[in-house]
Amino acid sequence: MFSGAEAGPAAAASGDAAAAGTKLIDLTDKLDKSGCYARNEDTRFPWTNLSIGDTRLGCKSDADEQLILHFAFQESVKVHSIKLTEFNNGIEPENNPTRILLFVNRDNLGFEDVEDVDPTTVIELTSDDLKENADNTLLKFVQYQRVNSITMFVEDNNGGDITALGALKFFGKTVATTNMADFKKQG
């Protein structure tokens, strides 16, 4: 199991991506917003707020603490780490997520499906892991090499009736692919 406290920024900078000679980038601009969705989100605090940069807006669950967030990318990416930030500087610590399951390249997962599918990664979080100045949560880079989508299932929180998340960013790099539209017909 992973926790954001397992590695510092030096480990992120000298990880697999640095060894490959490429710089990690914020993959937020690579999201295909038309393919992203949330289940059990409070419509006043939708998933789209997670990339705005204002943790007072953020995303909240609606009926209970569980929340599914699905992020589709415009192209295949390699994901190195994620950065989860608490809602509104932690004024409601009971609503912080504590257990998150990540699923790679699984589309249309619902609450009835998540128990039947093995997660790619299980992340256990503390309040310190969600601070703005906390290190990114490192992922097993080998499991995140050709990512078209990530589904995040917030399974549990710190005891609140709902879950709240202030911001979310994915860090990694794009996968070099061939665009067949660039080729011209011969003959």
Automatic annotation (TrEMBL):
Classification via SUPFAM superfamilies: Galactose-binding domain-like (SSF49785)
Domain PITH: 16-187
Keyword Disulfide bond: yes
Gene Ontology cellular component annotations, sorted alphabetically: cytoplasm
Keywords noted in UniProt: Disulfide bond
Keyword Disulfide bond among record annotations: yes
Top-level taxon of origin: Eukaryota
Pfam families given in the database record: PITH
UniProt xrefs under InterPro entries: Galactose-bd-like_sf (IPR008979), PITH_dom (IPR010400), PITH_dom_sf (IPR037047)
PANTHER family: THIOREDOXIN-LIKE PROTEIN 1 (PTHR46115)
Protein name: DUF1000-domain-containing protein
Taxonomic source organism: Fragilariopsis cylindrus CCMP1102
